[in-house]
Amino acid sequence: MRLLPVALAVGAGSVAGTQLAVRAGTKLVVTTGLVAMAGFYGWVAATTSATLSYSFIAAQMVVYGLGLGLTLAPATESIMGAISRAKAGVGSAVNDSTRLVGGTLGVAVIGSAYASIYGSRLTATMPVAVPGRVAAIAHQPLGAAYTAAGKLAALGHPGLGQGLLQASIHAFLRGLTVGCLLAGGLPRWGLSWQSCSCPPSQPTGR
Fold first, then answer.
1. How far is CA 180 from CA 46, 93, 109, 120, 176, in A?
2. For 124-139, b where at least 16 C-beta lie within 10 A, e where not — what string?
3. Residue 4 to residue 174: CA distance in whole angstroms
4. How far apart are CA 23 and CA 17, in angstroms?
5. Exposed/middle/buried for 3, CB within 10 Å: 0-12, 13-18, 19+?
6. Which residue, 71, 74, 83, 123, has fewest beta-carbon neighbours within 10 Å?
7. φ and ψ at 186, to 5 degrees?
8. What pLDDT, on the 0 to 100 scale, is given for residue 21?
9. What does the alpha-carbon distance between residue 4 and residue 2 come to, in Å, rounded to a whole number?
10. Is 174 within 8 Å of 142 (Cβ atoms)?
11. Per-residue pLDDT tens for 138-173?
12. List of E strands, 62-144
């Protein structure tokens, strides 16, 4: 339910993007979408906080969803409209392949950067009295760090648990900030070039 803002925004952006591309051109619409997505990542990086309200996050998701919708729908239309109906399967495969490759590389690069920063930051700020076994658990996803901090508090070390919790939160936010900066700064012009450099749409008999 909390992800509905981005889902609805993607739908609205896709409909609007396709219509705007007919009037203003695919290049302008896709570029606008890419700028909106980059702006989203910069906005998130500048405002990361453990106390951020959901309404603020929802507004950020709307910006991202609109940018994604403005980008994907016109880009797909430009690819599929540039080939004949007989080659529609080939065009769809190429379109899906570019997204899969880009998504995989994005997860690998950004995820690796986040994991590295989270681990190093947590190690540097974690209380030295945290047992090694608990520290190893805390270096797993943030939920594991929350669980480890709760167990320390339940065992009679509330201060140590709170220190571990705060260190994990700060490490997560630091990794998130750097990840967003990478996501917003990585070249997105491959998709823009691909969607805008296709030849004019060929008649398909429709």
1. 9, 29, 12, 18, 6
2. eebbeebeeebbebbb
3. 26
4. 10
5. exposed
6. 123
7. -65, 145
8. 87
9. 6
10. no
11. 998 889 999 999 989 998 999 999 999 999 999 999
12. none
Those residues whose C-beta lies under 8 Å from the C-beta of residue 2, and which sit 6 or more positions away, are 54, 58
Q: Using CA atoms, how far apart are residues 55 and 47, in angstroms rounded to an integer?
A: 13
Residue 194 to residue 80: CA distance in whole angstroms: 12
CA within 13 Å, CB half, 125: 20
Token pair listed for 167: 């260190």
Token reading at 205: 């008999």
| Count of Cβ atoms closer than 10 Å to residue 47 Cβ | 13
pTM for the full predicted model: 0.78
Nearest one of 119, 136, 135 to 127, comparing CA atoms: 135
Q: What is the dihedral of CA 173, 178, 183, 185, to 10 degrees?
A: 140
